[in-house]
Amino acid sequence: MNIKPLKHSEYAQMKQLFLDVFSHEPWNDRWANDELDAYMKELMENSNSLTLGLYDEKEELIGCSLGYVFSWWEGREYYIKEFFIARHKQKQGAGEAFLKLLNDFLKAEGVKHTTLMTEKTVPAYRFYQNNGFRELEDSAFLVKRVSRS
């Protein structure tokens, strides 16, 4: 397996992989085509975007990491907004291999930290913990619905 930056020519393949993963359990997302295109464009086309693909030995795209690189006082940080592995490759070590390859790639790029967010009630939570991620005890992720006044 290897990783490399995703090309715009691979957009349709990446989008289909994203839909296949996130429209099933445990996520059950219901993306409309226009919203998904806008979301993917926002993830891929910013000046600080870092979008990487995981490829198997046949050069088939089997995973993606979509996120942003930010400068921080402790050094550059990669924030993973979306990380996914093809459903037919899950629970076979592909995700763990991807994270190891990603770590090596980021280290070579001078990135000091990788951050992400996930729900505690899904298998991804334990997966990330098993692969070296930890919860920050003094941090909280907060949300507020924008309402009409």
TrEMBL record:
Keyword Acyltransferase in annotation: yes
Pfam families: Acetyltransf_1 (PF00583)
EC code(s) of this entry: 2.3.1.82
Assigned keywords, A-Z: Acyltransferase, Transferase
InterPro entries associated with the record: Acyl_CoA_acyltransferase (IPR016181), GNAT_dom (IPR000182)
Span of domain N-acetyltransferase: 1-149
GO MF: aminoglycoside 6'-N-acetyltransferase activity
Keyword Acyltransferase: yes
Protein name: Aminoglycoside 6'-N-acetyltransferase I
Organism whose genome encodes this protein: Shouchella xiaoxiensis
